[in-house]
Amino acid sequence: MTVAQPTGDELVEMLAALANPLRLRIMAKLAGGRDYVSHLAREIGVSRPLLHMHLQRLEAAGLITGSLELSDDGKAMKYYEVTEFDLHLTASALVAAAQTLTSSEPTTGPAPKERSR
Predict the structure, then answer these.
(1) Separation of CA 44 from chain center
(2) Rounded to an integer, what distance in angstroms lies between the CA atom of residue 2 and that of residue 85?
(3) pTM above 0.90, yes or no
(4) Which one of 26, 32, 36, 96 has the largest count of C-beta atoms within 10 Å of its C-beta?
(5) How far is CA 104 from the centre of its chain?
(6) What dihedral angle (degrees, nearest 10) is formed by the CA atoms of 31, 82, 101, 15?
(7) pLDDT digits 0-9 by tens, 24-47
(8) DSSP 8-class letter at 72
């Protein structure tokens, strides 16, 4: 399966989402297999609200997907997993991506003083 190269706008959003140490740790954990929020929060050592914020950013960038499932005891559990993507950054790939940018400013950049914990 071939994964299409992201447009300039998509690349900016993906790189901005990955430009945070906590989100890199989340991606590393999820690369090992899908996981649900409570377990992932314990594994990484962060609160669920903080984890949710970072998961939303990764999902908006198209790097992960979430699905709501019912456990055997009837509890709703949100599972996340890494999506299929392939980023290969070269000078020529950056030139091609830059030619597709629709804005000179990213619409979603890192929040001011974004913290990893």
Answers:
(1) 15
(2) 9
(3) no
(4) 26
(5) 22
(6) -30
(7) 999 999 999 999 999 999 999 999
(8) T
